[in-house]
TrEMBL record:
<dbReference type="GO" id="GO:0000156">
    <property type="term" value="F:phosphorelay response regulator activity"/>
</dbReference>
<feature type="domain" description="HTH LytTR-type">
    <location>
        <begin position="140"/>
        <end position="235"/>
    </location>
</feature>
<dbReference type="InterPro" id="IPR001789">
    <property type="entry name" value="Sig_transdc_resp-reg_receiver"/>
</dbReference>
<dbReference type="InterPro" id="IPR007492">
    <property type="entry name" value="LytTR_DNA-bd_dom"/>
</dbReference>
<dbReference type="InterPro" id="IPR011006">
    <property type="entry name" value="CheY-like_superfamily"/>
</dbReference>
<feature type="modified residue" description="4-aspartylphosphate">
    <location>
        <position position="56"/>
    </location>
</feature>
<dbReference type="Pfam" id="PF00072">
    <property type="entry name" value="Response_reg"/>
</dbReference>
<dbReference type="GO" id="GO:0003677">
    <property type="term" value="F:DNA binding"/>
</dbReference>
<dbReference type="Pfam" id="PF04397">
    <property type="entry name" value="LytTR"/>
</dbReference>
<dbReference type="InterPro" id="IPR046947">
    <property type="entry name" value="LytR-like"/>
</dbReference>
<feature type="domain" description="Response regulatory">
    <location>
        <begin position="4"/>
        <end position="117"/>
    </location>
</feature>
<keyword id="KW-0597">Phosphoprotein</keyword>
<protein>
    <submittedName>
        <fullName>Response regulator transcription factor</fullName>
    </submittedName>
</protein>
Length: 243
């Protein structure tokens, strides 16, 4: 998951600092910078939406507090970036999602982005509770949203897990047990041995305890998993006459 953002500040050096912070922070991508809110509004009116607006408060023409009210319909999150502490109450009243004080430290910025990513993932989970698997990526603050329908199989590799999709693969540092718990409500997945979980949405053929996926990969059911495998197959067969 990656949050697309714009930055608004009348001071060029503040914009540059924000752009550098965004560049080094996983999970957020910089789209465009603006020196005033009116230009940003024109852009958003055409583009319709952006995930995050990072916005200064004290600016000419229209200040950030007033601009935020106009920008709100075009973004999921609005974060003030200011050198002034006295606007905290006003920012809370208009529903700001963050308040960063200049100069913004790397740690504070990463923490803010992390909160936004978590809020976004929770929102997606509510809207589409059964559509994707959210896992931690290779770095501390990286999260990956994986559509369930694309998962071919999941393989434990000692201290990490590899998730193989129809078009790519991902590495996550969750345990196999954690992954199994996260997908336990999904009926297409089955753990077939100590190190592998497969999706039956992509199974081409079952021959005894050998499984062939559509992509040609073959798997063997482990001895201690055979009873569960047999039960899984029986429950999926179309009628009692063939069981």
């Amino acid at each position: 998951m990656e949050l697309k953002c714009i930055t608004i500040d009348d001071e060029d050096y503040s914009l540059t600092q924000l752009e550098e912070l965004i560049l080094m922070t996983p999970g957020v991508a910089h789209v465009k910078s603006f020196n005033n809110a009116y230009h940003a509004l024109t852009y958003l009116h055409d583009q319709k939406h952006v995930d995050v607006v990072f916005l200064d408060i004290e600016m000419p023409q229209i200040n950030g507090i007033e601009a935020a009210k106009l920008l709100r319909p075009y973004c999921d999150f609005l974060v003030f970036v200011t050198g002034h502490t006295e606007y905290g109450a006003q920012s809370f009243e208009i529903g700001a999602d963050g308040y960063l004080l200049k100069p913004v430290s790397e740690v504070k910025f990463i923490q803010q982005v992390q909160r936004l990513l978590e809020a976004k993932s929770n929102e997606l989970s509510i809207k589409n509770p059964d559509s994707f698997l959210l896992v931690k990526g290779g770095s501390k603050h990286k999260y990956i949203s994986i559509p369930f329908e694309k998962i071919l199989y999941i393989k434990s590799m000692s201290n990490y897990v590899r998730i193989f999709l129809t078009d790519e693969e991902h590495i996550t540092y969750h345990t196999m047990k954690h992954i199994e718990e996260a997908i336990q409500e999904r009926t297409e997945f089955l753990r077939i041995n100590r190190s592998e979980i497969i999706s039956f949405n992509h199974v081409k053929q079952v021959d005894g305890y050998q499984i062939l996926l559509n992509n040609g990969n073959k798997f063997m059911v482990g001895r201690s998993y055979k009873n569960k495998f047999d039960e899984f197959l029986r429950n999926r067969l179309p009628g009692p006459g063939i069981r």
